[in-house]
Amino acid sequence: MRIVLVGPPGAGKGTQAQFIASHLSVPKISTGDIFRANVSGGTELGRAAKQYMDRGDLVPDEVTIAMVRDRIGEDDSRDGFLLDGFPRNVPQAETLKKFLAEWDTRLDLVLELVVDEDEVVRRLSGRRTCDKCGRIWHVDFDDKQDDVCDDCGGRLFQRDDDKEEVVMHRLEVYKHDTAPLVQFYADENILVGIDATGPVEEVTKRALTALRPLEK
After folding, report:
1. 3-state class of 82 per DSSP?
2. How many domains does the chain have?
3. Residue 204: which CATH number?
4. Terminal CA-CA length for the chain
5. In which pathway does it act (predicted)?
6. Is the torsion defined by CA of 55, 56, 62, 67 positive or negative?
7. What is the largest distance, in Å, between two alpha-carbon atoms of the chain?
8. What is the pLDDT of residues 35-93, one digit of tens each?
9. What are the φ and ψ backbone dihedral angles of 194, each rounded to 5 degrees?
10. What range does the domain containing 154 cover?
11. Which of 99, 114, 142, 170 could pair with 56 as two cysteines, CB 3.0-4.6 Å apart?
12. pTM of this prediction?
């Protein structure tokens, strides 16, 4: 099965992608993970990508497309995959459709995680990251009263791309560049939207229910 997850920043795509990919026994392909690995490794791509990521902007299409095409071409993706973070705009979606057609395949489903703007800002601006172990805590959801990681004692800090002004900018970028994907995939008759608010487990149940007809 070949699936794409779409939704605004903070919709929970990364979390749901892990559960869904595990359920379907397909690889989760996340551009965000690839970008962050390059940033932490100090690669040339990472240095270039960081400039865009810190501002909440999108990494240029040509870099992203080439990277995703190579990843989808690997052996473990032959029987299916789940894309998280790609495509982010209609030109990327059109390019994805073309190179899948070259391999005589297509997407089975695009799953939209629907969440309102206020909830996105609350989710992202409240996140704090440990500078030692990398665990992410939330000032509301984890009832944190200090800036110390309960796991390792490291210092908690707010990532640049989680600051409220950057989150608001990311939402504007999403509305301008990514939201048109909803109409694009609706026209392709492969779009299904689910409510992404509430406990993670409930959202996962909704996602798996949406996938059930394709598993028969």
Report:
1. strand
2. 1
3. 3.40.50.300
4. 11
5. Purine metabolism; AMP biosynthesis via salvage pathway; AMP from ADP: step 1/1
6. positive
7. 54
8. 777 788 887 777 878 888 788 777 888 778 877 887 888 899 989 999 998 998 899 99
9. -130, 155
10. 2-214
11. 170
12. 0.80
